[in-house]
Write a structure and sequence with these properties.
By secondary structure, the protein is an alpha/beta fold. The protein is 32% helix and 24% strand. The model has no long low-confidence stretch (mean pLDDT 86).
């Protein structure tokens, strides 16, 4: 009797190779097409890896030499349906190994082979013994915890916000039988929904437009000035989605925005709102993913990686601050969460809302050309009014830590009137450069350089520490100049730490809080800083973290310092990024009853970018910039791909990219050029603008095409050859389709 042909599993593994790997099913198990999307553990060299089954077929020949998979990790596929299909599309679009993309779609615990977690919520309550012992407890954290739990049940998320360090106290109470941890369905923890303000006519029109789009895929741009109430529109759209029994996914660009949105959403929607971002433990992110996978999580708010959340009952996707660059993944395989969310929305057949006061030029072009529905909110919601902008010309003016006397006088007046002030400086640290006043030596990073010069190390900790903001290299500041031995070392320039020092000395009776990457590393640090300021008159000193959608009702004055270096960047997106940053940070002022003001100090008051923004607004800037982009052949009127390579030595990256260029040119010759010349223009190879970073020499090759199809045809032909090039073994290389910068 003839034996049945052996079944071979085609498995995607999280390795940087553009192929699937064949394995026999685990011993004693049969395999079929129903196993596609299941996780299993397999041997790979001397290691064990967790892979995803991508195919299952009878072996064409005797499957000798194939290794058996070690075992299945669950009885049913984790990746299936729309999410698997969309992830496979993303692998094709980014030309990345499908195994790496599918692994990215899973939380870290599932990538490691852990089981799909339970999704109930954990809460705490006092036992009868704990309630009886409360009166006799000494003052301290255990007593405060007991008081919070007396007569009620509190979930762990609520306790995180109510009492620092409560977990240790809870464990000690539980060991003594005074408190207990219990599992509850998430629905029991949902607050009663609270009413919101009545939408104004513009908001009501936008809400109705989104409601009318609920039956299928419709991309909508919610283009509203800062303070126009875009979040209120989101809330109404999500409430309608929930009323239809569907799930909603909301993406935000920064972890710092998540707590503020979560609090507002939980108060208004009356359902549990789940958070997913890198500030959470891996286990918590896996629980949210599993709850969404099972259809239990109805509203998910998260940062970039949350775009891979399963949505079996999808009804709406919202991308807040859609212009923000943090939606682009810059490590591993490069994807853009906003663009991938559009693909998922189309596959799911649901509307997607892109919201911003400063839409990216690509999104704005799509809206103006009719690809997206364009909704405008031209007025601030409620009693908020657009703040007037005053430009201070500081040429030949004396400055104190980078601040002019006129600007400081404006801060004095705002604080005296009981207002809050934001001093915006988009450079953290104490000073950008440590320089010797005697001989001109400056502290440079030994691991980074540009074609023109070594990269200066930023001064931190009031002059005691040097740190490179490009590679993270740190070292103590020298006590004397290494070149001349002189003692004239002086910090040059202004960072947020130096501004904080000046303002603390000048306003000792007011809180002065610094908000940048250095001061907000700990979990919930940003939320705690805002709570510390409260409604008191005070000063916030911060970087672009404060320009991203925060609603600070007491803020009456925004001062912007040190933006001149951004006016003359060689990056073709620099003007767009600076315009968005200025509009966003200015929009923090005057969002409530009290009027606001923006003071912008600059050495270039007549610069065309500033003139256009101040007198015409963001859309006037966009008109000019889009015309220049079209004339120059830059996105959105062209499509780009950047091939990057790096090595410890300067020669291998250039050799690899030259080989890549030859391979691409040979393919174009074989494919045949059109009447207007090659469909794909090849620029380079050339050293990167920062030619050396973290000890690695860097080079790049830029591909450009007026249409997307020929660019991807060229990449499909090129990428397999790149993996086979001998030069590829001497470098680390990456491909970035639709790069957001050319660095």
């Amino acid at each position: 009797m003839p034996s049945q042909p052996q079944t071979v599993l085609q498995v995607a593994l999280p390795v940087p190779l553009p192929r699937l790997f064949d394995y026999l099913p685990p011993a004693g198990h049969q395999a079929s097409e129903q196993d596609v999307g299941r996780r299993l553990r397999v041997p790979f060299g001397q290691r064990e890896l967790v892979g995803i089954v991508e195919g299952c077929a009878p072996a064409q020949v005797e499957a000798t030499g194939l290794r058996e998979a070690l075992g299945w990790l669950e009885p049913e596929p984790l990746l299936h349906g729309e999410l698997r299909a969309s992830a496979r599309w993303l692998a094709r679009y980014t030309h990345a190994p499908v195994g790496e993309v599918l692994a990215t779609a899973l939380p870290a615990t599932l990538r490691r082979g852990e089981p799909l977690p339970d999704t109930h919520e954990w809460a705490w309550q006092l036992t009868e013994a704990g309630a009886s012992a409360l009166a006799g407890m000494r003052q301290g954290r255990p007593r405060r915890l007991a008081e919070l739990l007396h007569g009620t049940i509190r979930d762990e998320t609520a306790l995180d916000t109510l009492l620092d360090g409560w977990r240790a106290a809870a464990r000690s109470r539980a060991e003594r039988g005074l408190a207990e941890r219990i599992a509850l369905p998430a629905s029991q923890l949902a607050p009663d929904p609270q009413p919101g303000p009545t939408p104004n006519p513009e908001q009501a029109e936008a809400i109705e437009t989104i409601h009318a789009s609920a039956a299928g895929f419709v991309p909508l741009l919610l283009d509203g000035v800062t303070g126009s109430g875009k979040t209120e529109v989101y809330l109404h759209a999500i409430a309608d989605c929930l009323a239809r029994g569907r799930q909603a996914l909301v993406l935000v660009p920064e972890i710092g925005l998540t707590p503020q949105l979560l609090g507002r959403f939980r108060a208004r929607l009356g359902v549990p709102v789940h958070a997913s971002h890198s500030g959470l433990a891996d286990s918590e992110r896996a629980r949210v993913w599993a709850a969404a996978w099972r259809g239990e999580a109805r509203v998910i708010v998260g940062t970039r990686s949350a775009v891979f959340t399963p949505l079996p009952e999808a009804g709406l996707i919202v991308i807040d601050e859609e212009h923000d660059g943090s939606y682009k993944q810059q490590d591993g395989f490069r994807y853009h969460a906003r663009d991938f969310a559009l693909v998922r929305a189309k596959a799911l057949g649901v509307p997607i809302v892109l919201g911003s006061a400063t839409p990216s030029l690509e999104t704005l072009h799509n809206a103006r050309s009719g690809r997206y529905v364009h909704m405008r909110l031209r007025q601030r919601a409620g009693s908020g009014r657009p703040p007037p902008v005053r430009v201070l010309d500081i040429r030949k003016r004396p400055l104190e830590a980078g601040l002019s006397a006129e600007l400081l006088a404006s801060v004095d007046r705002a604080l005296a009137a009981g207002g809050q002030v934001l001093v915006f400086r988009n450079r953290r640290g104490y000073a950008p450069v440590l320089m010797c006043h005697d001989c001109g030596w400056s502290a440079a990073c030994p691991r980074c350089s540009s074609p023109e010069q070594s990269r200066a190390m930023t001064v931190h900790a009031h002059g005691r520490r040097l740190q490179c903001h490009h590679c993270g290299h740190r070292r103590p500041a020298p006590l004397a100049c290494p070149d001349c031995g002189g003692l004239g070392l002086q910090p040059q320039g202004i960072g947020t730490e130096r501004l904080e020092e000046l303002l603390l000395a000048r306003y000792p009776d007011h809180p002065v809080l610094r908000i940048d990457r250095g001061s907000t590393r700990r979990r919930d640090a940003l939320e705690k800083l805002f709570a510390e300021l409260g409604e008191r008159a005070g000063v916030l000193v911060g970087t672009q973290m404060l320009a991203k959608g925060h609603d600070l009702a007491g803020l009456t004055l925004v001062t912007v310092v040190g933006i001149d270096e951004g006016l003359f960047s060689a990056d073709f997106r620099a003007s767009e990024k600076l315009a968005q940053l200025l509009i966003q940070v200015a929009g923090r002022a005057g969002r409530a009853e009290r009027a606001g003001e923006v003071v912008l100090q600059t050495h270039h008051p007549d610069h065309p970018l500033l003139e256009t923004l101040i007198h015409g607004g963001y859309h006037a800037f966009a008109d000019t910039e889009l015309a220049q982009r079209e004339a120059a052949g830059f996105p959105p009127f062209a499509h780009l791909a950047m091939l990057r390579a790096e090595s410890r030595h300067a020669e291998p990256p250039m050799a690899f990219l030259h080989a890549a260029r030859r391979a691409l040119a040979a393919w174009q010759d074989q494919a045949g050029a059109g009447p207007a010349g090659p469909a794909v223009e090849i620029n380079g190879p050339m050293p990167a603008p920062m030619a050396r970073r973290a000890g690695q020499y860097r080079a790049q090759l830029l591909l450009s095409a007026p249409q997307r199809a020929p660019l991807h045809a060229a990449l499909r032909a090129l990428v397999p050859e790149l993996h086979a090039l001998p030069e590829a073994r001497k470098v680390r290389w990456s491909l970035d389709v639709d790069p957001i910068d050319l660095y």
